[in-house]
Structures are given as structure tokens and as C-alpha cells.
Amino acid sequence: MATKVVMEALSPTMEEGILVEWKKAEGDPVTTGDVLAEVETDKAVMELVARADGVMLKLVVAAGATVPVAEVVGWIGEPGEAVPSGSDDAPAAAPAAAPAAAPAAPTPATHPEPAAAVAAPAVPAAASGRIKASPVARRMAEERGLDLGAITGSGPEGRIIKRDVAATTATPMPVTGGAPTAGAAFTDVANSQMRKAIAKRLVQSIGPIPTFYLTAEVDMERATEAREALLARDKDGRFSFNDILIRTTAAALAQHPAVNAWWMDDHIRQWQDVHIGVAVAIDEGLITPVIRHANTKSLRAISAEVRELAGRARAKKLAPEEYTGATFTISNLGMFGIDEFTAIINPPEAGILAVGRIEPKPVVIDGAVVIRRRMRLTLSCDHRVIDGATGAQFLQTLVGMLEHPLAMVW
Amino acid sequence: MATMTYRDALNAALREEMTRDGDVYLMGEEVAEYDGAYKVSRGLLKEFGPLRVVDTPIAELGFTGIGVGSAMVGLRPVIEMMTWNFALLAIDQIVNVAAKIRYMSGGQVACPIVFRGPGGAALQLGAQHSQAFESWYAHIPGLKVVMPATPADAKGLLKAAIRDDDPVVFIEGEMLYNVKGEVPDEEYVTPIGVADIKRAGADATIVCHSKTVKPSLQAAKTLAGEGIDCEVLDLRTIRPLDVEAILRSVAKTNRLVIAEEGWGFAGVGAEVSDLVQREAFDDLDAPIRRVHQADVPMPYNKHLEKAAKTDAPKIASAVRAVCYRD
User: Fold this and answer.
1) Rounded to a whole number, what is the distance in Å from the CA of A65 to chain B's nearest CA?
2) Do residues A227 and A244 make contact, with C-beta atoms less than 8 angstroms apart?
3) ipTM of the predicted structure?
4) pTM of the prediction?
5) Which domain holds residue B151?
6) How far apart are CA A48 and CA A39, in angstroms?
7) pLDDT digits (tens, 9 = 90+) for B291-322
8) Which of residues 267-306 of B touch A (CB under 8 A)?
9) Which residues of A touch B286 (CB under 8 A)?
10) Strands (E), A7-44
């Protein structure tokens, strides 16, 4: 008879675990004690070992799934043996990292829930804003320089107690990453304990969207030359620097899915496709029509689409699906003579790019002061999703593309 | 080291101190001819004569007052209460005279007296004879309250109480008299006001005294099997409280259970709890738990009495709670 493999309580306080990686495939022979999978507990990444001999009959949950303790994750038995079915042993909810179908128009308002049922964090310690911690836990955390907000409490009502602080000190928190799945519109990346901790403490620090800003100055000489050359070749061609920015940003985002992402509260959704929201000023204020799949479109197509959408935006004739679902937004105030500015993130998006004007400036190149056309870009990052280095790397790619336009098609 | 009962340890302490100091005398109901209601004074009449081992009428206020007066003029009386329940009749002398005369005389008159006898419940003695009054006496400035749990402590502390120049309320236990334990052969005096770690541990402190020491040790043994390492701290003296010992233990374990025999309201545990939350707030990992008698007159019914009393399982569950293991 087949034997269940269940999510075991691998730490005293564990209520659920993330099945990080299966070490056995279906059909693999299994001996008691073999490592079946790696499981991220609330404390560390641990090994789930076999409690029976046989073959791995079935992997019930996919890697990346968050599974409550005691839930069946797989079956071990004789080769060819049938896996018992029954409501008790029904597979856990669809795993968090499962590719989701591409929605025609992903809409934040209708997408408040993660695609997969991810169990709520064990204890929302800071639900009321006040962190419940025992006095000694507070003192220990202070002595060790630990942030209580980054620690999950295992006491009543999520109270952080001594053992929680002790465990935090003893085990560095692991990070689980998630690679984009080919062919899927997005990948949901389960929040690692570290990601939860970063999110929690940053929100406490500066508000619901903990934003930081990265500014870079771009040399626009080559982009300008390229644009002029293209315009000279095609008398009908009309495209703006903004169109170039949309196209390059989309190309850069495709290389940096971590920036092309949504904050979903209990996980991060990294989009494969790039849907760029373009901030357009209208009489009543501002609207951001979305250029879908901007990373796959030609500059010419983008240019035409922007013009068409912006026109209908000003005429207030946009359908809701035309101004929602962006994965990233660009706001350009260059045409108003703004040197640089910081744009405000449009949640659940994790980033927005603020574009300043292009102007000739004296710069030092090869030891000589020369006049170059320069432009300043400022990336606003939701720190819950994007860390400093992540944002900087994206910006580096983007600047590189603008300074070497061929990099866009590299 | 000799093994002896708590009763015999007290007897030895009385004998040694009466031999050592001619001013020490014993007075109370049945202490002389009958050798004491619980035989604590066995043989003393024969040894020291009727002037130093004095039987009294059943008149607690009267003989306590005689004792207090004699202490004020230089003797060192040991007044035996057949039980502390009867001392209710004598409490005016204890609280209003013995405890206050040094203060009210501006230090001119001392009152070196020991009031001793069994306190708390035994088995099915009913509501009026099963009361633990240590918190009453500990409430009074001017009194010391001593409550040994073992034969060795009983002997050493009674000697210290007799030598003390101020009134000492010395509460024994009917259920303790037959407890056996090792008692040092050589002479020793156990200082008043010093608690004793009866079992060292790392995970939780059980503060206890007198009859709750044994169930605390039993609970600690049970809990050791569950991976909880308890420290059992026997207060031995309720007043003055060994503040440092309590704080030191809590600093080590971060969790505190206080077990006492009497009622909870304004009990010894309340005082210890107040001390710890104030002085050791940053050491605590869980709210302090107390185990004490149910808030009712002690039932006579055997099962109800058992249900009302502090015992090892109740102490163990309180410890589990402070360890977040319940």
C-alpha cells in the first residue's frame, strides 16, 4: 500500500512550509532516509526525508508550493501501484509558482488575489502596527541588532518570544528566488521569509509603498543621431524620444523581470511580458494608457499605438482595459523642461521611470570637456520588490541601451 | 550527615538553643507534659524543667501576651501555636505589640520572640483548620516570616529565628513533620532571608516555599521528561524576601511560576509577581503564572479539597504555559 509523504513540522513553530525543490522525480527509487525535497520552514531550508521504501509514485505538489504541515505532498509505494484517492488526500491548492494563463488584460482591480491559494502567513504579528514581543525578546533583539518586525512570533497572537529571537540569530534567513517560466505571462514568486521581513520593516519605515529612487544621467547623442537618421530615411516616420524610451525600457525590463513586477502582498508577481503604462496628461489630470507586450513590438508600432492611445485618452475614450494592467510605467516631463523628478509608483507595479529633458551639457569625455546631449532618468522602486542593486542593474541595462541603441536588439 | 524527620530537626534546634542560651524557653498548649501536639517538644520538659517548657491553658491571646511581655524584658520565648489557625486569637499580640514595640519605643525595647507551629492545610481538617496565613504576617512591617520546607532548613532556620532580636513568625507544616532529610551533624545556623535553589534549571523558575516545594520538584521532574528544565527556588523566608535570588533566577530562565499553598488574592505570589514585573521586566518571556489554592474556604470533602489545593500537575501546567508549551 502506498505511503503518504506529508509536509512535516521541521521546526517547532512551523505551520507551513514552502516545498522549494523536489530531489526525487516520479518513478525514482526511494529508500527510507533519502532526501525527497527541500523545504523552507519559517526558520531555515530543511530536508524532507523518506519514511518508507519503494518508488516515488507521485509528486502531489509542485516545487514552490506553500503547504500546511501534515498535508500530503507526495506518495511512495511499489512501482505501478495506484495512488489512493480521496478527499483527505486531495492535492493541496495549486502551487504558488504554477504558471498562470495569460490574461488578455490583467487588471489590478480584478486581480487582488494571488493566482494560487497561498496560505496566509502564520501570524500577522504587526497587524495592528504594534509588534507584540515578550520583554526579553525585545531586549535580545535590541542587543543583537535584530529588527522585531523581521521576526515571526510563535507565541499567542503572534507574540515574539525568546525562542523566536534565538532562532533568528542562529539561522540566517534563506532567500528563495523564482525564475520566469518560459511561455507564461508571469511567474508568481512566493515571498521568502527575508522578502516578508524586508516588506514589513520598510512599510513601517516610510509608508505603505516604501519607495527609493535611483537617478542616472544618460548620454543621448547616439540615440539622437539614430532617431534623426531614421527620420531622414522615412519621411512618414514619426517617432519621439518617448517612443524610444518605451521600447528600450521594455527591452531592459524583459531582461530584468524582478523590476517588471507587481507586489501582491503575500507574494511578488514577476511578469514575462512587458506592459508599459505611459503617463499622459489630460485636462482632468492624468491617465496611463498601456502599451501591451511593448518588448515584442517595433518602435514604429509603439509610436503609432502611443499616438492613437494618447489621442483617445485626451478624448476620454479609453476602455478600462486600455489603461490598466501595466507592469511598469514611464512618466516623461522632458517636454516641460523638467531636468529630473521623482514619480510616484502606481501600485501594484513595483517601479516607475521619471524622464527629464534632453539638453546639451558640458561633460568630460576622454579627459576633454565636450558638449553632449544628456538626459536624466529617475527610477522609483518599491523596496518590497526591488532592492537597490536590482534597480541599479536594470537602470544600467537601460542606460546602456540608450547609449548604444543596437543593444536593444542584442 | 544524619537522616532525620522535620519534626526531630525542630526538636534538635530547640534543644540546642535552649542549651546554648538560658533565656530561651518554650511555651504553649501541650508542649510540656504531652511533648507537643505534634511531638516537636518531645523530651524537652524532662531535660529543661517546667520553668523553661511551659504548658498553658487554651488561651492563645493570654499566653502570647505573656510571651511578648517576657521578650520585652529580656527573655527569648518560643511560643508554640498548636496550629496557626489558632493564632487568629492571638494576632493582636503578634501584630499590634510584638511587631511594633521596637518602632513605637524608638528602638528602646526589642522583642526577640519566635511564634511557631504548623500552618496551612493537612488532610480534611475543614475550612477553619486548613488556612495558610503567611501572607497575613508577611504584610506586617516588623515581622519576619520563615517557612522551611526540609529538615535541614527547619533546624538551621529555627536556630536563626531564636537568635534573632526581632519577632519571627515561624510556620511549619503538619504534612511536613514526617518528611525525612539529611541534616548536618555539626552545628549550623541558616540565615533568615536567603532563598535556596532546590533544583537548578534553565527554562523556567518555580518560586515556592514550604509545602509547595515538594510538588514543585515533582512537577520539575515530570517536565524534565518533556524537555523543560525547571529551576525550583525555595524562598525559605517570606519576609524579608530574597529579592536577589528571585531576580537572578528569572534573569536566567526568563519565565516564572509562583506556587503557594494559600489563596491567591494578595498572596505571596502577588508580591513576588509585582517584584519581578517591576525589577525584571526585560527578562520576562511570558506573563508570570501563579498556582495557589482555589478562592474558596477549604472544602472538607476529600475530592473537593484535592481539587482546591496546589499540586504538582497544576504547577506543571503553569510551567508549560509560561514556556508556551500548553
Assistant:
1) 29
2) yes
3) 0.72
4) 0.54
5) 2-183
6) 7
7) 999 999 999 999 999 999 999 999 999 999 99
8) 281-286
9) 134, 155, 161
10) 16-22, 29-30, 35-40
